[in-house]
Amino acid sequence: METDNISDRIAYIGLGANLGKRRETCLAALALLDGEPSCRVMRRSGWHETEPVGMESSNLFINAVAELRTSLPADDLMALLLKIEKQLGRRRSHGVTDRTVDLDLLYVQGVVTGYPDGFMCMASQGVASGRPDKNKGLVVPHPAIPQRRFVLEPWAELVPDLVVEPWGKSVKDMLSALEPDDQAGDSCPSRGVLEK
């Protein structure tokens, strides 16, 4: 793929699936992203198999994080991720349900949007209790990152020292802050790393 018209903006996406051919569907999503003139998939973490979080299901998830280089603004990148999900059979419904593919926009270099005034300062001091207002549009970085082991473990394989605003903490520090055996909320323990 030609990269002449792609800027140096780096983005990270979370990939997940717990229905069908999980790994193949996630790889197809990456191929579709890489086929876009405005995106280049640079690398991907290993595959992590995890218990479902925030839902009842007997289907295990497979999760990974991918690094992209893109010229797209965050809103357009999110729209592309949603288009790819739909193309690969994702049907959105109310509530958290099983899915053929889930593509989360975790981080876009230099972009912090959708957080209320003062949130960044409070978060950097560890006292932020409010959540972003999703009615204001796209929220980047993804607001649940600090509680999601299934995001932080694979992301730490790629860029453990990346400091993520608005929290002002590195990926590895956010991962270290999760209790190793914490099964409450979104910090469900990983069942293990599958082959790369």
How would you portray this structure in words?
- With about 200 residues, this protein is of the alpha+beta class.
- The chain has a single domain (about 10-190), classed as 7,8-Dihydro-6-hydroxymethylpterin-pyrophosphokinase HPPK (Alpha-Beta Plaits).
- The chain contains five helices and eight strands; from the N terminus they run βαβββαβααββαβ.
- The strands form two sheets. Strands 1, 2, 3, 4, 5 and 8 form a six-stranded antiparallel sheet that branches. Strands 6-7 form a two-stranded antiparallel ribbon.
- Strand 6 (about 165) and strand 7 (about 170) form a beta hairpin.
- Output the CATH homologous superfamily: 7,8-Dihydro-6-hydroxymethylpterin-pyrophosphokinase HPPK
Extract low-pLDDT stretches.
1-5, 120-132, 183-189
CATH topology value: Alpha-Beta Plaits
Question: Roughly what percent helix?
Answer: 25-40%
Q: Could you say which overall geometry the principal axes of the C-alpha atoms support?
A: globular
